[in-house]
Design goal:
By secondary structure, the chain is an alpha+beta fold. The protein has five helices and eight strands. Strand 6 and strand 7 form a beta hairpin. The two termini are 32 Å apart.
Length: 201
Amino acid sequence: MNQRKSNIRTIFEVLTYLLIYFSISFIDNPLISIFSLGLWVAFWIYNLYKKVQYRNGIKLNIVIFPTLNDDYSKMTSITLGIMIIAGSLIGYFAFSILILYCIIGSTVGIIIFLNGVLDLPKGWIIIENNLFRINSIEEEIDLKLLKEIIVKNDQITLTNQLGEHKNVNLLNLDSASGENIKRYITERLNHNTISIINNVQ
């Protein structure tokens, strides 16, 4: 269920970029243009706010950890932000576009750039109401059904009471991430007996 929400969120993030296209396409219709751009700015400023919150330790009901896709996501946003800022400034100084367009373009570029700079790792675990949720596994797992959790540099393996395994791959964990994951899970076991093995080197 939570993975489905994550997928929906990803789709919505992509759709917000289309709002920029609409705001430009309907430049002759200020209401549509301003509305589209306003929605985009509001969404990504909210994203920035949530990232700053987590970095300041405010959201404590989730643990996040690095994956192999983090650098690509981060650099994509940073590069795109710089290109939009540079394009807006070049358009103003070299081609004399309206200062308003330059300001709007630069603002959009700065927001995208900051989302890249403050980007958070894509791996996550949430334990709520005795349910274990982790990225890459769609279904929620009852803690009572788990027997063992093995944390490695590139993988987390969940083993249930029947000996069945589920793996979360493509991780990029360091020792600090491994300890954070183990501590987070241990603090939320709710009297369930689960062996948590941290093999992160």
